[in-house]
Amino acid sequence: MLSLNGLSACIGRQTVLEDVGFTLSNGQCLAVVGGSGAGKSTLLRLILGLRKPAVPVAGHLCFDGHDYALSKASSGKPMGIAYVPQSPAHGFDPLRRLRWQWQQLQRLLGKHAAGGEVLDALGLPVLAKAFPHEWSRGMQQRLLVAMALLEQPKMLILDEPTSALDPLIAAQVLTEVQRVAQECDIAVMMVTHDLALAAQFADQIAILHQGHMVQTGPAQQVLTAPSCDYAAELVAHRYWQQENPESLAAE
Ligand SMILES: Nc1ncnc2c1ncn2[C@@H]1O[C@H](COP(=O)(O)OP(=O)(O)OP(=O)(O)O)[C@@H](O)[C@H]1O
């Protein structure tokens, strides 16, 4: 479904991505894991064809049988990708009620009554007359995921999809994403800081560090055979929340 090769990008004089590449098949999930400022959101934006603030200086993308030379703006944007941004506020019109926004999408897609089961599976209430600001950030994030799934895109890109969710709801959301992706053969790419979560839900993990993809491979392989010090450190600290109380008790 997607093959990316040799992507390098700059913001001003700063190189923010260097020679990044990976492949992703239909129905598979790739988790891009890395620290703050590693270039994860930039990578997603460039795949979507969003050329600001980072400008691609080299790279080639093949998506759904079409080729794109990423350094050339005239090469166009890939079609058929649904994107859930890191900040849910960027996904809604703040002045329109959520139910109206959901119904507009249903109309656009010609699916007038569809999507109820996805809302249920994501633990969302019936869409009443609320405006976006009347819902919590986690609820908004889940509604954006539901809207993206309703589209049944060829590929779904999720930027930190669980950042506003507690662990139980996060698992519920990713289980539903996994179910729909497998049923509809959707390729999923998600960005997360959480390697433990990535290991549970992704088939492939890519570790991004300071603009370099330092390791890519099947999730189990990355966990059991980290290829560099940074990957090893991430693997060692993936359960820090659970380990912390024990280490405190040991002191
Ligand atoms: N608008 C901007 N102007 C200048 N530099 C930027 C801008 N946006 C991002 N950068 C820089 O680009 C680099 C990559 O940023 P990016 O947001 O892609 O990282 P990230 O891995 O998604 O980080 P986080 O996990 O904190 O969201 C960082 O060094 C960041 O400072």
UniProtKB/TrEMBL annotation:
Residue ranges of domain ABC transporter in the record: 2-235
Entry keyword set: ATP-binding, Cell membrane, Membrane, Nucleotide-binding, Transport
Cellular localisation: Cell inner membrane
Highest taxon, organism lineage: Bacteria
Keyword ATP-binding among record annotations: yes
Membrane-topology descriptor: Peripheral membrane protein
Family: Belongs to the ABC transporter superfamily.
Protein name as catalogued: ABC transporter ATP-binding protein
Organism: Parasedimentitalea maritima
